[in-house]
Amino acid sequence: MDTSDALNGMPGFAGREVDAVMKAADVLLRVVAKSVAEVEDTVNTPQLRVLVLIHSRGAQNLGGVAAELGVHASNATRICDRLVVAGLLERRDDPVDRRYVRLELSGKGQDLVQTVLEHRRQAIAEVISRMPAGKRPALASALEAFASAAGGQGTSDGRFTLGATK
Questions:
Q1: pLDDT tens digits for range 27-55
Q2: What is the distance, to the nearest Å, from the Cα of residue 162 to the centroid of all Cα atoms in its chain?
Q3: Which of 69, 103, 97, 99 is nearest to 84 (CA)?
Q4: What is the C-alpha to C-alpha distance for residues 132 and 139, in angstroms, rounded to an integer?
Q5: What's the pTM value of the predicted model, to 2 decimals?
Q6: What is the maximum span of the chain, computed from C-alpha positions, in angstroms?
Q7: How far apart are CA 150 and CA 23, in angstroms?
Q8: Contact assessment for residue 109 and residue 43, using Cβ atoms and an 8 Å cutoff
Q9: Is 85 left (phi over 0), alpha (psi -120 to 50) or beta?
């Protein structure tokens, strides 16, 4: 089925708008992929997901990490153990419930996540700087409206999130 025909039949949709968003998404995914590649010598994708999860949502327990990754708790434990050994993650007793262990970013882990997110911000800023200055305010307004229409919910998955501030 030709999706452009289906979209053109929907009121208010133009194939150009959808195609433009898809092209922009491709550019953003390229930015993300490049930033992930820059830290592949330090962490793998599941490990980066854990670090970004904790960065964006705060301290987590192993159950929360396993649920977010969609893996069994034993797999989450192995991933987190490697991050602890690498000095990127710290385990602490949960002050509210001592049955749980809280996983928090170490200073080194925080630095790694900040490096990835800052790379993404700089790469996006570089692209925006090449746009005509008069088009930049419209870009911000249109993307804010787009995110709002989607419920404002992005992803905390470290492979794909750009680390937008709320």
A1: 999 999 999 999 999 999 899 999 999 99
A2: 5
A3: 103
A4: 11
A5: 0.78
A6: 58
A7: 18
A8: no
A9: alpha
